[in-house]
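Case study 2.
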Amino acid sequence: MSTSLRQGRISGWLKMNQSSIKELADSCGKSIGAMSRYCNASGVPTKVRAAMQAFETSSGKHIPILYLPEGRDKKPGPKKGWIDRKLADLRLEMQSKSGV
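Prediction:
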């Protein structure tokens, strides 16, 4: 689904159910701008998607799953400073081989 269509569908659905992006943002603990970007994205963090899915309007309805972006988390990268530790290990190894 196109991202602009998704945001239009989510905001349209919210309006039809007497709600707004602001109320969705408040319930998710995000700013209106961040929530607008999340509604427009093709993938969001799984916690945000779960919060969007759990959002309930005053009439007790939830956002249809088809309208929600995919939930996915980024894989964690290497820990900070890993390259420095690797270089230090290589230097020690080179020194021990050369006998210095």
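Residues 82-98 form the longest helix (17 residues).
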